[in-house]
Design a protein that fits this description.
By secondary structure, the protein is an alpha/beta fold. It has three domains: 3-161, Glutamyl-tRNA reductase, N-terminal domain (Beta Polymerase, domain 2), CATH 3.30.460.30; 171-313, 3-Layer(aba) Sandwich (Rossmann fold); 347-427. It is built from 18 helices and ten strands. The strands form two sheets. The chain has a six-stranded parallel beta sheet. Helix 13 links the parallel strand 8 (251-254) and strand 9 (280-284). Helix 9 (171-183) crosses helix 14 and helix 15 (348-368) runs antiparallel to helix 16 (374-401). The radius of gyration is 32 Å and the shape is elongated. The two termini are 28 Å apart.
């Protein structure tokens, strides 16, 4: 099968954060263990080659189908069965792309331009895992693999040539970045969470994901502290123990919102002395604030409020938007190059057939003339090559620059020289 025919059979069907609710996406999520069975249902639904990608932001299928309408309906039916929906219920929450638009979509997804958070690196790995699972189950043929490789190359270009994904854009991610800037490797530091608000717990979650392993939770009551400690699998204490525990903390995440400052010049200064001036980072996620602003005036103390984190996040979003614009340009460049190369390769068969036709005619003439004159053989060979050079290059160029015009030209050449089976039968 030609690359051009492969692209004409490419289909994408899915539901994402752009088209469906979080509840719907939760019902459509597919675990890695269940993916092979889902792929079998998609093959029965009309796909010859198919990959299924399932994340918190999307569940989508992409593949090759001889009948795109049948494959679209089959994919929606498979998604409906997966999530326990009626087809009429899930259909309006899905998106559909085919041919070049499907290819553009895959390039954007693999490069993390269609993610909940643009530039998040997890998507690239999830895309590769989905492809790996399809390959292990023999659902990924050579033609679809060629498209996947193009998507991976595009994602690599976006990562290497833009700053996308390099700056945090959420406040929790910004807190992690600040913590690394101040304290370095998070696996080697101790953190204290004064729990009381959702944002503080979210920041602690992100820090644990980033490598934080030594965490102590403090709450007003022992029951609340113990409950939070089970969530984080860490030590716990009560608020009355804060003076003894504070000097041990390299990072303090606080979200109590007690209405008065838990951390002020006096107790932070005492903690710094006990720590022999080793730096302390305070991430204040409380409203009203738990950290007195004057703490930031102390040498070796670094305090960040929600406003500080939001400013960093806004800067990150601005820079990421700039990078996303650059990335979109790369996507379009790679898309045009892929389509051009496919069209150019599509012209090769007719060029080859034309040369074979000329060679057969040349050999027939030489045979009629005796066929034993080396000079005549060389002269006719060179003549044929010279006559064919410009038409061959023109066919390739037309196919690359304007695929539709290239196909028309190829059809005309087939008809003029009787290269297709149908035209040969007419001549005979």
């Amino acid at each position: 099968m030609s690359d051009e025919r492969t692209l004409s059979r490419l289909v994408v069907v899915g539901a994402s954060h752009r088209t469906s609710s979080e509840t719907t996406r939760d019902r459509l999520f597919i675990s890695e263990e269940d993916l092979p069975g889902f792929l079998i249902s998609l093959r029965k639904a009309g796909f010859t080659d198919v990959v299924a990608l399932s994340t918190c932001a999307r569940t989508e299928v992409f593949g090759l189908a001889p009948d795109k309408k049948v494959a679209r309906a089959g994919a929606i039916g498979a998604l409906a069965t997966l999530g326990g929906f009626d087809v009429d219920e899930i259909g309006p929450q899905t998106y559909y792309h085919e041919t070049e638009e499907a290819l553009r979509h895959l390039f954007r997804v693999s490069a993390s331009l269609d993610s909940l958070i643009v530039g998040e690196p997890e998507v690239t790995g999830q895309f590769r895992d989905a492809v790996r699972i399809a390959g292990e189950g023999n659902f990924l043929g050579r033609q679809l693999d060629t498209i996947v490789q193009a998507a991976n190359r595009t994602a690599k270009r976006v990562r290497s040539e833009t700053a996308i994904g390099q700056r945090p854009v959420s406040m929790a991610a910004c807190a992690v970045q600040v913590a690394r800037d101040v304290q370095g490797d998070l696996s080697r530091v101790r953190a204290l969470l004064v729990t009381g608000g959702e944002m503080g717990e979210l920041i602690a979650d992100q820090m644990q994901v980033a490598g934080l392993s030594q965490l102590t939770v403090i709450a007003r009551s022992r029951a609340r502290a113990e409950m939070s400690a089970r969530r984080y699998d860490c030590h716990f204490s009560v608020l009355d123990d804060l003076p003894e525990i504070l000097p041990e903390a390299d990072i303090v995440i606080t979200s109590l919102g007690a209405g008065q400052h838990l951390f002020d010049r006096e107790n932070v200064s005492e903690a710094l002395v006990a720590r022999r001036r080793r730096p302390m980072l305070f991430v204040d996620a409380a409203i009203p604030p738990d950290v007195d602003p004057v703490v930031n005036d102390l040498e070796d103390a670094f305090a960040y409020s929600l406003d500080d984190l939001e400013r960093i996040a806004l800067e990150g979003r601005f820079r990421r938007d700039e990078a996303a614009t650059e990335a979109e340009a790369i996507i379009e460049t790679e898309l045009r190059e892929y389509v051009r190369a496919v069209a150019e390769r599509g012209a090769v068969p007719v060029v080859s057939a034309l040369r074979q036709h000329f060679e057969h005619v040349r050999q027939d003439i030489l045979s009629d003339m005796g066929g034993d004159d080396p000079a005549l053989d060389e002269a006719t060979r060179r003549l044929a090559n010279r006559l064919l050079h410009y038409p061959s290059e023109t066919l390739r160029k037309m196919a690359a620059e304007d695929p539709a015009a290239g196909r028309d030209a190829e059809e005309m050449v087939n008809r003029l020289f009787g290269l297709s089976g149908e035209e040969r039968e007419k001549k005979e």
